User: Fold this.
Amino acid sequence: MTTTSNRHGARRVGVTAPALAAALSAVLFVAVPLVHAAPSGPLPPGPTAAHKGMSGAARHVYYPNVDRIVCEVNKERTKRRLTSLLISNPVSDAARRHARDMARMGRLTQVGSDGRDLRARLSDANVYSSHILEYLFQGYDHDGYFADMATDPDPDNSFYKALMSPDTVAIGMGYENRYWDVVLVGKHRRLVTRPPSCGSA
Assistant:
């Protein structure tokens, strides 16, 4: 089978904010292979702590709260009588590696600096599914803004449509320095998932 790709231009979310004034770009890559793999080790979590700048003042380094974002997506899925989306840590690990790679290269790309594509990355993560969608984003640095974009039912929002698809059962998210790699996967008996932690609210 082949991998198709569609590029859609910069778009701001429905409720804009000054932080979103910069152009936001996204790339969608759709793949429908059966992925076979060898296991890979866990990846340490991305940077979440504050660090000191030259002035000595603490500066917060943003890293997305994947659980919070998925919980917001699941509110929308519940309205549509869909099962809740799960989180796949192995898929997130692969996505995180690719996001870091894109940040180092300074561009959105499906193919990593090592020449490997989504199929190869998921194969390394031992991920199996016949339904795979990859979305690449640049420019979001706030959970609320990203969740607002993800749950925007605008007819032109293909990401929302994919998130609301009954074929999509789990998500993996990677982020580094405003580069996002988001991978949606379908059901498979070997797919490792966990429910998002939504708290008591």
In short: The longest strand covers residues 25-31. The beta strands are 4-8, 25-31, 51-52, 58-59, 86-87, 132-138, 170-176, 179-185.
